[in-house]
Amino acid sequence: MGRLAGAAQQVGTGDLGVQVIEEEGDDEIAMLGRYFNQMTRQLKGQRDTLLENNRQIERRRRLFDSVLSSVASGVVGLDAKGKVMFVNRSAERLLALPDEQSGDISVAVPEFGPLLQRLQSKNTEVVQEEVKLSREGALENLLVRISTRRNDAGNLEGYVIAFDDVTDLVSAQRMAAWGDVARRIAHEIKNPLTPIQLSAERLKRKFSPLVGDQSDTLEQYTDVIIRQTGDLRRIVDEFSKFARMPEPELRTHDLVQILRDAALLQETAMPAVKLETLLPDGPVMADLDATMISQALVNLIKNAGEAIESLEEKGAPDSFVPEIHIKMEQQDELIKIDISDNGIGLPEDRARLFEPYVTTRDSGTGLGLPIVKKIIEEHGGTLVLLDAEQFKGNAHFGARAEIRLPSTLAADLHSGNVNE
Questions:
Q1: Residue 75 bridge partners (DSSP)
Q2: What is the pLDDT of residues 348-382, one digit of tens each?
């Protein structure tokens, strides 16, 4: 009995491997020893099985977390009441959620609420829809899919929300559609423009002397036709340029000089604007089409000036000083150019500014930025529109165009194909 009491005490401390000496015979003491040893063996086996199961569950959980954390799609897990239980890293980034997010999904992400309600009301297993989401001044298109999660008995345990950012895809589809429209419009409209203009000029020359005191009226009408034909030709030419962007003729040029010339040109055109440049002291070489890149840079600086004009037309503060900052820096094999202004800023749906005929100005055609973006992309670079961080102290943020272009390696600078 003393040995059993000591062994029981060891079991109480967690030592399930303890065994007692089993007495011979079938009396109560002998039976008690055998039953005690059988009990500790069973407890040890059950504990070992439980620990192994816990280790497997932990390994699966780590694998599950690792997979969900590494996928590009956003994943949010909900319980049966719609409370947020799990958010992977992509979801935190796309939805701008904090690391530890809990609460009702309709509160955390109001844009997902109607879709979840539709799933619950229709008693279906899956719903899918494109949702527009506005976060940090940018409007994104998300393809959202919500599915129910049930246990083996068929009872509802919760929901899984999976979504992808399809903003670039939607924009690319629109750009492709606009490219096709541009080609058709340029083909159908441009051909008759020259005959219309020539006919109007002939009417003016032939009939002005014959109509006497009505000649001024006739000339006014024909001038309208000629002027509007010229405007239409300019629009069609921009459409043609957008639809069939010429292949860049790449040669090695000094990008610093190209940017300096573009800034000087616009500084002359905007004398009231304070234009600051922060450029490298020496040349920065890159393989590019100088004409196309110069066109893109001039357009972006011009847009910055027009953003300032829009703010002044809307009503700028009395102490407002119009500014445009142009900065270039080279990072290894990458050239970064920032063109910032303290103008009226960007609209919420800024991604659509790269689509044809989307403009914030009444007098704009909406083709400038799409053409600039195509030029930059044809050179293997990227163009994004952001808030101008250096103007955060103002009542508005202004806008910043960020260009990233690949640079020429230093070893290639002496190849003899350099035009400065």
A1: 162
A2: 777 677 776 666 665 555 667 888 888 898 888 89
In this structure, are 208 and 63 located in the same domain? no
**Residue 117's domain is classified under what CATH number?**
3.30.450.20
Please provide the DSSP assignment of 318-348 as one string: TT---EEEEEEEEETTEEEEEEEE-SS---T
Does 182 share its domain with 159? no
Q: What is the CATH number of the domain that holds 348?
A: 3.30.565.10
Q: Number of structural domains, the chain?
A: 4
**22-67: pLDDT as tens digits:** 777 777 777 887 777 888 888 888 888 888 888 888 777 676 666 6
Q: Encode 210-224: b = buried (16+ Cβ within 10 Å), e = exposed.
A: eeeeeeeeeeeebee
CA angle 117, 67, 150 (to 5 degrees): 40
Integer-rounded Cα Rg, in Å, for the chain is: 36
Q: Is residue 280 part of a domain?
A: yes
| In a domain? residue 170 | no
Do residues 156 and 292 share a domain?
no
Q: CB–CB of 23/40 below 8 Å?
A: no
Distance, in Å, from the CA atom of 226 to the CA atom of 224, rounded to the nearest integer, reads 6
pTM: 0.52
CB 324 within 8 A of CB 305: yes
Q: Which of 46, 206, 74 is nearest to 146 (CA)?
A: 74
- Alpha-carbon distances, residue 148 vs 81, 115, 144, 158 (angstroms): 12, 12, 14, 6
Owning domain of residue 373: 251-419
